[in-house]
């Protein structure tokens, strides 16, 4: 059995791209975890330079991206602007 860790979580208001959020929620549902737990896990993996998902999850992500028409890539990450309707 793995050791559990107690943490102090805070509520935050994070704005995310709509289609990206839909895919993230789908991935969280796949693993039966909350969206917050997914974000924490992805970031903790990223901080250590580790990939957060295995081949099976990456395949599911590819399918979710197609369903939600998500065409953004990592190359887009610092080039996104909000549409005038979202401001």
Describe the fold and architecture:
- The chain is mostly helical.
- The chain is built from three helices and no strands.
- The protein has helices at residues 18-30, 35-47, 55-67.
- Helix 1 packs across helix 3 (55-67).
- The termini are far apart.
- The model has no long low-confidence stretch (mean pLDDT 95).
Structural descriptors:
87 residues, Ribbon-helix-helix domain-containing protein, mainly alpha, 3 helices
- Tell me the Rg in angstroms: 15 Å
Q: Tell how many strands the DSSP assignment holds.
A: 0
Low-pLDDT segments, ≥5 res: none
* Largest sheet properties: none
Count of separate DSSP helical elements? 3
pLDDT average, as an integer? 95
Distance linking N and C termini: 47 Å
Shape: globular
Alpha-beta content class: mainly alpha
Portion in helices: 40-55%
Quaternary structure of the protein: single chain
Order of helices and strands: HHH
Q: What share of the residues does DSSP label as strand, in percent? A: under 5%
In brief:
The protein has 87 residues and is mainly alpha-helical.
Which helices and strands occur, and which strands form pairs?
Elements: H1 18-30, H2 35-47, H3 55-67
Helix pairs in contact: 1-3
């Amino acid at each position: 059995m793995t050791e559990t860790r107690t943490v102090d979580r805070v509520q935050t208001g994070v704005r995310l791209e709509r289609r990206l959020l839909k895919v993230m929620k789908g991935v969280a549902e796949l693993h039966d975890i909350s969206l917050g737990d997914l974000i924490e896990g992805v970031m903790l993996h990223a901080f250590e330079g580790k990939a957060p998902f295995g081949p099976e999850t990456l395949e599911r992500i590819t399918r979710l991206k197609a369903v939600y028409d998500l065409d953004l890539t990592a190359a887009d990450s610092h080039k996104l602007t909000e549409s005038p309707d979202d401001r």
